[in-house]
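Appendix B. Chain record.
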Amino acid sequence: MTYITLTATQEERGIRILLTAAPEEISPGAPGREVGDIRFNPADQTATLSIGNKNKVTLETFRRAGGALAKWITKNKVTEAAIAPASFVDFEFAPAHIAFALAEGVLLGSFRFDKHKTKKDEPTPATICFLDESLGPTLERAAVICEATNLTRAWAHEPANIINPITLAEQVQELAKEVGLKCTVLDDKQLAEMGAGAIVAVGQGSANPSRLIVLEHQLSVKREAQPVALVGKAITFDTGGYSIKTTSGMVGMKYDKCGAMAVLGTMVAAAKLNIETPLVGILAASENMISQAAYRPNDILKTLSGKTVEIISTDAEGRLVLCDALAYAQKNFNPRALIDLATLTGGIVTALGSNRAGLFANHDELAHALFNAGEATHERLWRMPLDEEYFDMIKSDDADMKNSAGVPKASPIIGATFLKQFVNDATPWAHIDIAGVSDWDKEMPYCPKGASGFGVRLLVEYLCQLV
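C-alpha cells predicted for this chain:
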C-alpha cells in the first residue's frame, strides 16, 4: 500500500531535502513558492521543498508539502533521501511536530490502490532519513497511524464482490489475531434471536446476510474503566433497496462502508500504539439489496432497543444498522463515550461540501474534544443542531418513529435525530456524518482519488487526549 519508509539516523545518504519558506512580500504565484514546489540542484544533489508563504505556515502545510515530496520521489525514482531538521528552525513549531506532519504527508501521499490491476506501475521503494535520532519515536508513531489510515483506504476501495458482510467478518477476524484485538462476530440468526430486527432487515434481501463485528482493546487491562465505544456503518453495497437508486447513484456505493473502515483502522492503530483507554469497535455490516426477501416501505421493524420503526425509505438503511449497533454497545459495554461514524446523508455534502464532516452530539464536552482533534489533524468537523423539534418530522402514526421524514428537508439532522432516539440521555454520544469527506473524486495533496481514510487520525488524536 505504501512504498516509502522513514528512519531517524545521523547518516546522510542520497538526495538532501531542504525546507524553505517564502517571505511575505514574494508573490504567491512566483516559481518555486507554492506549497510543495521542489527545485532540484543536480550539482550538489539537493532538493529544496517549498513550504509556501512563511507567515501562513501551519502543520497542515507540512502535510501537504510531504504529500508533494512523495509524488516527486516516485516520479524521479529516488531511492534514498535525507531531511535535516536544521532546516526546521525557520518555523514556529517544535521539530517533532514538523517531522510528524511531514511524515504524515509522505506516508499518506505514497498510498496507491492497484491490487486488482494486471499491469502495475511498481514504484521504486524509497527510504527517507530524518537526520536526528531523537525523532525515531515520532516517526514510528506517524508510521503506525498512517499505516492504519492506508489500511482503511484499501479496505474501503474493495468492491462488493470482494468484501460483503460475511467476507468482511472473516477478514476482520484474521486481522484481529494479527494485532491482538478480541473479535466477536454475531451472524444474522444470532442478531434475530436477540431482537436486532433493524440490521437483520437491511440485509435480508441479500445472499450475504448481516453481521455485527465487535472488536475489543485493553478491556482486560482496566476492567474498572468504562471503554470508549466506536460504531461504524458498513453497508458493503447499497442499491437503495426498493427505494432504488439511479445507476449513477449506485456507482461508488462500495464506499458506503467507510465509517466502519475508519473504526477498524482506529482499533488497529490503538492496538499497535498500545493506547491505554479501553476501546470497543463495532462494525454494523449489511448489504442493501433487492429480492423477494428484501424489506419494503411501510414495513415496521422492532429494533434491539425495543423501539419500533416504520420504513419510509429503504434507502435510509444506514441509520437502521447503526441504531441496533448503538443499542448493543450500551447494553453490553456501558461506554464512557459513544461515537459513530457513517456515510449517512447526501444532505451533509450539500451543507458542508467536502471540507468538513458533520458533527452531532448530545454532550458539549465530547463535541468540543472531537472538534479540537479534527482541527489538530485537519480532519475537520462542524457541529450541527439537534433540536428536539426535529423529531416531529419522523413521528409515525403506526410505530414509535419513521426512518425518514420523506421530504428533502434537514436530512442530515433528521438522520442524527433518528439515531439520538437510541442513545441513553446519560451516555455522551456523537454522530459524525462523513458522506462528504469519505472519498475524493480527484487527487488531493496527500490522498489519491478514492477513499480518504477520514476518521482514523481524528479518533486516534481524540483518544490520546483522554485522561
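Further analysis of this model is presented in Appendix C.
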